[in-house]
Amino acid sequence: MSPSPIRVLLVDDHAVVRSGYRLFLEHTHEIRVVAEAATADEAYRAWREHSPDVVVMDIAMPGSGGIEALRRILAADAQARVLMFTMHANPTFATQALSNGAIGFITKDSSPEFLVRAVISAASGKRVLSPKIAEELAFSVTQPERSRFAELTPREFEICRLRVNGYNVNDISAQLKLSPKTVANHLSLARAKLEVDCDIALFRLAVAAGVVTLKSPLAGQDTET
User: CA-CA distance, 210 to 115, in Å (whole number)?
Assistant: First the structure.
């Protein structure tokens, strides 16, 4: 008998993108996509329902993103295998994901064949990096502002990411299903770890670390705690 195919949950907020990657993954009989999701909440629900062998998940999604979904999944099962698959060839995101339990981090400019191999490796418990992100991580040691974000917990990182992308405390509270006070406390702890004392300083550091671009709405907003 042939071995059972690897069961995959595919998470990306673009349906067309998911369809394309599903074709790539299912081109081999070794992989079967058992569910798809477009948000962090949907990803967690689909993971609970389908218990996939591997989660292939984007980082950047509307509202709470892939780091928050990673946190929730691994909090429920520390052995879950989550492979981050993203357009962001950014060592800050990679370090945050890998240090908090992702089994791999690959970029969307990787070939379809590499994605298939990465899923197979992840299913067997092997960590995997795309060559581009491996190179970026190797050189990130020369950029200390990026390593500072690695000190944050997944929740602190996600709150900072949302804040510098223009969400206020109440918005973040609704996205993460936390009280505004809890969000404010996490934001305060994150600022202390990052050694910044206001949102403008946080934004500048996030830009330097590649967590956000200068197109962020926060660039034109008043600060809010």
Answer: 24
Among the listed residues 206, 6, 213, 3, the one whose alpha carbon sits nearest the alpha carbon of residue 103: 6
| From the candidate CATH numbers 3.40.50.1000, 3.90.226.10, 3.40.50.2300, 3.40.640.10, the one assigned to the domain spanning 6-140 | 3.40.50.2300
Judge if 6-140 and 144-220 fold alike in CATH terms.
no
CATH number for the domain whose boundaries are 144-220? 1.10.10.10
For residue 36, the SS3 value is strand
Question: Would you kindly state where each structural domain of the chain is located, as residue ranges?
Answer: 6-140, 144-220
Inter-helix orientation angle 199-209/154-164, to 10°: 100
Q: Is the pLDDT of residue 169 over 90?
A: yes
Position 184, amino acid: A
DSSP labels, 136-159:
HHHHGGG-HHHHHHTTS-HHHHHH
DSSP three-state, residue 7? strand
Closest CA to 224 of 190, 192, 188, 194: 188
Give the integer Cα–Cα distance in Å for 123 and 6. 7
Distance CA(120)–CA(136), nearest Å, equals 24
Q: 42-59, pLDDT tens digit by residue?
A: 999 999 999 999 999 998
| This prediction's pTM | 0.76
